[in-house]
Amino acid sequence: MLIRLIPDPGSPLHEQIAAAVRAGILDGSLADGERLPAAKALGESLGVSLHTVLHAYQDLRDQGLIELRRGRGAVVIAPAPATRENALRILDDAASQLAVLGLSAETILALFRQRLDRSSPHDD
Amino acid sequence: MLIRLIPDPGSPLHEQIAAAVRAGILDGSLADGERLPAAKALGESLGVSLHTVLHAYQDLRDQGLIELRRGRGAVVIAPAPATRENALRILDDAASQLAVLGLSAETILALFRQRLDRSSPHDD
DNA sequence: ACCTATTTGTCCGTATGTATG
DNA sequence: CCATACATACGGACAAATAGG
Question: Which residue in B105, B78, B83 sits closest to B94, CA to CA?
Answer without folding.
Answer: B105
